[in-house]
Design brief:
Layout: H1 4-7, E1 45-53, H2 60-63, H3 74-81, H4 99-104, E2 113-114, E3 119-120, E4 123-126, E5 131-134, H5 135-144, E6 149-152, H6 165-172, E7 175-180, H7 185-193, E8 197-200, E9 218-220
Parallel strand pairs: 1-6, 6-7, 7-8
Antiparallel strand pairs: 1-9, 2-3, 4-5
Helix pairs in contact: 6-7
Amino acid sequence: KGNPLWSNLECPESVVFPWDIKSTYIRPPSFFHKLTKEVQPPRSIEQAHALLFLGNQVTTDHISPAGSIARVSAAAKYLLSKRLTPREFNSYGARRGNDAVMTRGTFASIKLQNRFIGRSGPKTLHIPSGQTLDVFEAADRYQREGIPLIILAGKDYGSGSSRDWVAKGPCLLGVRAIIAESFEKLHKSQLLGMGILPLAFLPGQTADSLELSGKEKFTIGLPPPPESLGLGHRLTVQ
């Protein structure tokens, strides 16, 4: 029968979970908002901007939301808008059931080194306006403008311990592809699972050798169906 305290909890009788729209801990995940019954073929990425221009060894600690929620973070702004006080913020781990918090906590590490900014911190450049914004705020503006996003990175992108939000977060930020010199193998699989293309520079090539500033627009053409993408498939990035 279990613990009587657990057994005596009141719960609604319903077939599906009755979401509480006022809850800041758990809410319907937005992964399924655009989900269709039929699997959609991959779409080419046109006129994308780089959300971040990163260096080597960007770990899962840099990417995934972790630890306490800083009072000046994008997640804190969201919780303040819900009339919570800083004492009630709690941690990203406690609020992992709220994608609005976790998306805002993606790339929120104070140790993130973004070449657009030139110093550590969870900031980036919104290229069309030239404004420096929180990573989430820049990504949100790009999505409202209908601009797809990529990330440029160096060696060993995604190294470190596995975390489930390490690919979910970038997906909800609107990232369609990551172009890096190399990837951690497991993380590459996580990105593919969330529909993000893990693309590697050709041998001997880097963002620096190609003289990329990161402020260019990127178009990535994908083969039309029924041709499929696979390991080692070469794509043209313009």
